[in-house]
């Protein structure tokens, strides 16, 4: 037990790594050899809270706002790569983005079949930060792009994925969420 209800394995761990995200203008694509992935929409929230003061997670405000910035809806999403620095956070992302009603995230993931690699909404197909280590959310963007390119090998989800949502949230004293809807 770390603090109720979080145990040691409910919290991500630090890891040594580096990551690079290259964002480019669309007219520079003739110089790119990899399959380009387009960011269709972004939304963010920066709020300074202590854990005891949170009345509602930023995922609820930010998730709803994301869908106002695109023609896509939750029903269009092929995979989600949700920040999981603490085990309960993917539940808030599921609820905040409208994959299930608020308060129903636990039931949505119960048994794990819906969020399995071959489920209706594959979640954190690379293991997330809980399984792969903490990269402050950039591992999720990488996995979303890898899945959309069809280059995830044994982790690859079925079908021909076209849309992924990958939030990034990190900081010691605030919760920050930038949602990315990425498509081909």
What is the alpha-carbon Rg in Å? 16 Å
Distance, first to last CA: 43 Å
Major beta sheet, specifics? 4 strands, mixed
Which outline best applies? globular
Order of adjacent strands in the largest pleated sheet: 1-4-3-2
| Overall number of strands | 4
| Strand proportion | 15-25%
Approximately how much helix is present in the residues?
10-25%
Structural class label: alpha+beta
Low-confidence stretches: 170-180
Order of helices and strands: EHEHHHHEE
Q: So how many helices?
A: 5
Query: Overall mean pLDDT score?
Result: 80
Describe this structure in words.
With 184 residues, this protein is an alpha+beta fold. 22% of the residues lie in helices and 16% in strands. It has five helices and four strands. Strands 1-4-3-2 form a four-stranded mixed β-sheet, sandwiched between helices. Strand 3 and strand 4 (174-183) form a beta hairpin. Helix 1 runs parallel beside helix 2. It is globular, with a radius of gyration of 16 Å. The N and C termini lie far apart (43 Å).
Condensed summary:
About 20% of the residues lie in helices and about 15% in strands. It contains 5 helices and 4 strands. Strands 1-4-3-2 form a 4-stranded mixed sheet, sandwiched between helices.
